[in-house]
Design goal:
The chain is of the alpha/beta class. The chain has 13 helices and eight strands. The chain has one domain: TIM Barrel, CATH 3.20.20.140. The model has no long low-confidence stretch (mean pLDDT 95). The protein binds zinc ion.
Length: 271
């Protein structure tokens, strides 16, 4: 019988299973923070989250705060939280298309939030506003001028952030690097279509490692050089998602690509 991946001597999985901490840098490109309605989170505030990230060996978590996504507090406040843990936390400036006055202010103040702010976060399916809506344009233009990444929630079948509209927007803004959060969950052919059409698009893996063989299929169909690691922390646990990548039936190279190499190629190591 084939040995389990964590029994294979010298593998990333073996080291992780043995030590409980990764011996490679891990970049979690999709996190949140703060409580959320009636959901119980074991840890959702910065000090507890950071302690957990250190435990598992995450080098960077880039997050958007639940409250800033919903407009109940502002990105400057998220910046103050991020600045308490500058060795590990980075933020996305959260965009709500329902608050265009906030958007103008956030773009004005972007420089005071960088370099801890590395780009923007869109949540079109939650805000029920298509990513092609003109309200997103000021941010897309700003990101395009400065070549900043945007993490966009994407979902198979969504009219707001599904493959068709995302392909349209990624084609229109070739200077923006788009991180497709959840990789169009449920629509692998759609994800492949966008991957083939738009070289400025990367696919982020939040919520997928729990689905049987999806990591393997994404590596086969799109290629591990286009995949990025993320967890939606505190919605999912770092251990579950890192374990899901390390125990997937993919090559060691694929795992290195997903967990840190791709993002270091895009953003460097010094950020
Ligand atoms: Zn998320």
């Amino acid at each position: 019988m084939k040995k389990a991946v964590w029994e294979q001597p010298g593998s990333l999985a073996e080291a992780f299973w043995k030590n409980g901490i990764a011996d490679i840098p891990i970049y979690d490109m999709h996190g949140h923070m703060g409580s959320h309605n009636a959901i119980y989170f074991a840890r959702c505030e910065a000090p507890e989250m950071v302690a957990h990230l250190r435990r598992i060996g995450v080098r960077r978590l880039v997050f958007s705060h639940h409250y800033s996504l919903m407009g109940s507090f502002r990105n400057q406040r998220v910046h103050a939280i991020t600045a308490r843990f500058p060795d590990i936390l980075r933020m996305y400036v959260s965009i709500s298309p329902h608050q265009t006055d906030f958007i103008a202010e956030d773009l004005d103040q972007y420089d005071s939030m960088a370099p801890l702010a590395i780009g923007f976060k869109f949540l079109p399916d939650y805000h029920k506003v298509k990513v092609t809506d003109p309200r997103y344009e000021p941010v897309l233009n700003f990101a395009s001028e400065r070549r900043l990444p945007i993490l966009v929630h994407t979902w198979g079948g969504s009219q707001f952030d599904g493959p068709d509209v995302m392909q349209e927007v990624a084609t229109r803004y070739p200077q923006v690097t788009f991180f497709m959060a959840h990789s169009f969950s449920g629509d692998l052919p759609g994800a492949k279509r966008v991957a083939d059409a738009c070289p400025n698009v990367y696919f982020e893996l939040t919520s997928l490692p729990g689905q049987h063989t999806i990591i393997e299929r994404l590596c086969a169909d799109i290629g591990s050089h286009r995949l990025l690691f993320g967890t939606d922390m505190p919605w999912f646990d770092e251990y579950q998602h890192v374990g899901g990548i390390l125990s997937a039936d993919i090559s060691e190279d694929d795992k290195h690509n997903i967990l840190y190499r791709n993002i270091e190629k895009l953003l460097g190591k010094d950020w």
